[in-house]
Amino acid sequence: MTETRWLDERESAAWRGYLAMYTQLAARLHREMQADSGLSLTDFEVLVRLTDQDEPRLRVGELAQALQWEKSRLSHHLARMQRRGLVVRQECPEDARGAFIALTGKGRTAIEQAAPAHVETVRDLVFDQLTEDQVDALAAIADCVLDRLNETE
Fold it and tell me: Which of 4, 7, 33, 35 is least buried, going by the fewest C-beta atoms within 10 A?
């Protein structure tokens, strides 16, 4: 058994700062999104994934993978979004067991109305506080950690 490689003080402060930032930022973004548009942050994430496609639809499994959600969580969330008319389930003609989740007109309108306020909140809370070098560093850090996560899956 290998010995635990504990974080030193600098690493621990950075890690705890990141966790506090992530928690507070996610909570604030969720509150602002809900107040501004009536969408949850998770609704917005689903809608963003769909609008990023040339044809605004994805297979359920692809959407689950893109969001890193368990299929059961996604299924429940999509059912709620369907009831609100934001997305629809479409059968897949090539695979009788498969289905697509597609953006509706109401879903497109919802994200188009929510996006400007969301971007302004992100800019205000994050990017307006950072220098260009810090933005570059943030992007590099994210790329490095994501690369490692993808390596180890």
Answer: 4
Domain borders along the chain are 24-151
Q: Which CATH class is domain 24-151?
A: mainly alpha
Per-residue tokens: 35:
């107040």
Read off φ and ψ for residue 90, nearest 5 degrees: -120, 135
3-state secondary structure of 4: coil
Determine the Cα–Cα distance for residues 66 and 63; give it in Å rounded to an integer.
5
Average pLDDT over residues 130-150: 96
Q: HEC string of 119-141?
A: HHHHHHHCHHHCCHHHHHHHHHH
pTM above the 0.85 mark?
yes
